[in-house]
Amino acid sequence: MTEILYGFAAEIGETEVLNQASNLPHAPLAVNAAHVPLSGGTDPTYGEVRWRTLINGTAETPRDMVLGIAEFEAGGRLQAHRHDPAEFYFGLEGAGIVTIDGMPHDISPGVAIYIPGGAEHGTVAGGEGLRFAYGFPNGCFEDIEYQFSAQG
C-alpha cells in the first residue's frame, strides 16, 4: 500500500505521505499546490477557469474528499453548471461573483460559500482575477458529473 501511495504522490506533484496512525483507513498526505500543474482553461464549454486538484482519490488510493484551487484571470468565467454533490468555495485572492440559482454572491479572501447539490452555479472573476479553494464530499473528482446549462 505504501508503494501505491508514493506512486500516487509522484503523479500529482510534490507531496509527502505523512506518518499514519494504525487506526486510520487512509494515509495522511501533504500536497504543495505550487507544484501541482494547472488543468483546464481551454474548453469554452466550461469557461476560462483553470484548476489544481490537490487531494483526489483513485481506486488504488482512496480518499474521502476532493480539494483543489480554482484560478481565474481578470473577467474569467466558470460557466453555469450543476452536479449532485454539494461543494464549497473559500476565497483566497482577488474577488468575483458566484451566482447560485440566480442569486449573486460576492467572493473574496476569507469568504466561504456553500453550494447545495444540484444547484445551478457559475462564477465571474473581478478585475484582479480570482483564486478560491473548492471541495466536494466525494472521493474522486473524475466521478463528479458536471452538467453545463448551455448544453441543455
From TrEMBL:
Gene3D superfamilies: Jelly Rolls (2.60.120.10). InterPro entries: Cupin_2 (IPR013096), RmlC-like_jellyroll (IPR014710), RmlC_Cupin_sf (IPR011051). Pfam families: Cupin_2. Residues 69-128 form the Cupin type-2 domain. This is Cupin domain-containing protein.
